[in-house]
């Protein structure tokens, strides 16, 4: 791997850390953390999911997911309901989370807009293509 590639991956790592911090700054006052937001966003856009499905999709270890889901459940943002398999439970958003979702989404979109203010649509499309290619290699 050449130096440019190393810098590329270092930049991605640094950006994701700073982006999570920025998201936390707008979400924490609304009662949510960025890691929790990813789960809520996924449940809202893709529908109910098992804990295993969430862990696999987000690339999060099972114990970490268990803790995050426990906090979301304690806050009243998710609940667990029986799935088609008796051994698995589906995780769904509560009515309280659905009511709060637009407020969270607005805060996230505001943060994203600020980060993208000097970035064009073509650049975003190019980056999406690169990310998709790299994801296929994981």
UniProtKB/TrEMBL annotation:
Keywords: DNA-binding, Transcription, Transcription regulation
HTH marR-type domain ranges (all copies): 5-136
UniProt key word Isomerase: no
Highest taxon in the source lineage: Bacteria
Keyword Transcription regulation: yes
Pfam family name, one: MarR
One function term, GO molecular function aspect: DNA-binding transcription factor activity
SMART domains: HTH_MARR
PANTHER family for the chain: TRANSCRIPTIONAL REGULATOR, MARR (PTHR42756), TRANSCRIPTIONAL REPRESSOR OF EMRAB OPERON (PTHR42756:SF1)
Protein name per Swiss-Prot or TrEMBL: MarR family transcriptional regulator
Organism, scientific name: Cytobacillus solani
High-level lineage: Bacteria, Bacillati, Bacillota, Bacilli, Bacillales
């Amino acid at each position: 791997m050449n130096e440019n590639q190393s810098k590329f991956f270092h930049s991605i790592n640094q950006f994701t850390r700073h982006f999570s911090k920025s998201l936390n700054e707008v979400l924490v006052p609304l009662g949510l953390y960025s890691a929790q937001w990813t789960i809520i966003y996924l449940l809202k856009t893709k529908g109910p999911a098992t804990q295993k499905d969430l862990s696999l999709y987000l690339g999060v270890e099972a114990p970490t997911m268990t803790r995050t889901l426990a906090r979301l459940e304690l806050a009243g943002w998710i609940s667990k309901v029986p799935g088609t398999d008796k051994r698995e439970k589906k995780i769904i958003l509560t009515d309280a989370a659905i009511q709060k979702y637009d407020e969270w989404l607005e805060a996230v979109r505001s943060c994203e807009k600020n980060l993208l203010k000097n970035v064009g649509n073509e650049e975003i499309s190019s980056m999406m293509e690169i990310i998709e290619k790299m994801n296929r290699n994981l």
